[in-house]
Amino acid sequence: MKKQTKAIRTQTPQTHFREHSTPLFLTSSFTFETAEQGKALFDETEQGNLYSRFSNPTVQEFVDKVCMLEDCEDGVATATGMAAVFASFAAILQAGDHIIASRALFGSAHQIITQILSKWNITHTYLDASAPEEDWEAAVLPNTKMVYVETPSNPGLELVDMAMIGRLCKKHGLIFNVDNCFATSALQNPAEFGAHLVVHSATKFMDGQGRVLGGVVVGTKEHIKPLRFFCRQTGPSMSPFNAWVLSKSLETLDLRMEKHCANALELAEALEKLPEIKQVNYPFLSSHAQHELAKQQMSAGGAIVTIDLEGGFERVCAFMKALQIPSLSSNLGDTRTIVTNPYTTTHSKLKPEEKENLGITEGLIRISVGLEAVEDLIEDFTQAAQVSAEMLVSQ
User: Fold this and answer.
1) What backbone phi and psi angles, to 5 degrees, belong to 121?
2) What is the DSSP string of 96-163?
3) What does the pLDDT look like over 166-187, one tens digit per residue?
4) For residue range 113-149, what is the model confidence (pLDDT) as tens digits?
């Protein structure tokens, strides 16, 4: 069967109630039929559910679907996307290890690497996402254990050549860890390029409707094993209710991403023609610096478009005030179009020089393109660009 069919038909075994939709197991714990079974479950000579901090049928259904969609062997679900990112580091890295990462990272991932891992004497080297293979090769040290990348990155939409990183990690025996949140499994599968771990904020496109928080890490059995131990002991467990919502959402992920991408490309092409907008950035625009790489490893350009406006934060405020349709929020991946200014929100904790290195200007606006009629979006963004430009001139 095709993945889309499996995403719809995979669910927990039907109970004696003969339900059609998957059941929701809202329980903190599970019973043992005998004391002997309790012992067997805890010493793992028998497999089964014990406690929802460890495992839960509804959560497992969600994990199973993500493993299938990402072509991975095993996985662990967490309460949030950042819990998944942190677990993928903390469960595997040890004091004295070294991590190589693309410089273009979400603000909280940057804070984990620079402020938290550093307290445990875990060092890092940042490279530009577009750095040539010899630069990545030169960054490998005797104590390097992992390479971590976002592709496309948040918010700059920079891409990392996953085939190249896969070769590097195989050559040096490194763990290849990819945040696939922006593209999702609908557009690319990092495991095909040698990724050992694939991380998602399920809060974003997996949910797709701004309802629940969640995260998931999938990968090889070998690399998920320490994550399962870490999560079992530290408890960043996903709520069964959230897992139920997310599992149902995966049934429409491909359908939604197809429309997200079509809308995003058409909007980006329209905005690129406006003289009131300094720059438009989208992986499937021919003007994108890594357009060819995007076409090689992605089936479509994703749902995120960024624009840069002359006039700094003052222009941003005027532009957002003029918009009629989009929501103003730091979230993304919703059916509803959302805009935010990363300089003052998602990446506000970065130092000015760090923002500059990532191309995060005061005038940058990240657009999470929703499922509205694209004609309405184009009209709204066009008038906002014109109105805000006129306001700036009049002042």
Assistant:
1) 60, 35
2) T-EEEEES---HHHHHIIIIIGGGGT-EEEEE-TT--HHHHHHH--TTEEEEEEESS-TTT-----HH
3) 999 999 999 999 999 999 999 9
4) 999 999 999 999 999 999 999 999 999 999 999 999 9
